[in-house]
Amino acid sequence: MDKRQRPGAGLTRRHFLYGGAVLGGGLLAAPALAQQLCRPTTGDILGPYYRFGAPFLAQLAGPEEAGERLVVSGTVLSADCRTPIANALIEVWQANGAGLYDTQTPGNYTDKGRFHLRGMLYTDAQGRYRIETVMPGRYPVPPNLPGLEQYGGITRPAHIHFRVMEALHVPVTLQLYFAGDPHIAEDPWASQHPDNVIALGADGQGRRGTFDIVLARGF
Ligand SMILES: [Fe+2]
Q: Are 190 and 153 within 8 A, CB to CB?
């Protein structure tokens, strides 16, 4: 069973495969094959709603925030898919449950207004991170965005944006998606990044997901 399909699984498919465990009912015995399947997390567009300078916090959404509670946690790993990266800087930003960002002015990356549903955090000594938030809402691609005109009006699947960097590794910008979203297949970004789609579990507090991020070495 693919671990991405199992709610609450502790490892991403990428990490799981490197561990030489069972793949499709057969034992993945060849280290060379395992190495081949271990690869850096693929990058995605920054998107028009990134803003520089979000506050340091891991609880993006307070208890008053409308929407289903969501916790995403994971480990940032080096290119071998098993060495944790401590003190990696993670920026996260997302739309609210209604699909609205705290700015609706696309491309104003240095907007100094109040930050909402955005934050920065560092991974701990074991490379781990954890964010508390709400499920992001879907929203349409704004019309007439330079270079994205052909996608204007299509509904983006729910997603959370990440930027991850560390001194000795190559930074990655990506979007995290959620399995079962009917808009993934038509989305020109989500459909190209199946490894960045995670299954969500649920407990009495809300939804839970695990997403490990692998950074390429910078030298
Ligand atoms: Fe977005």
A: no
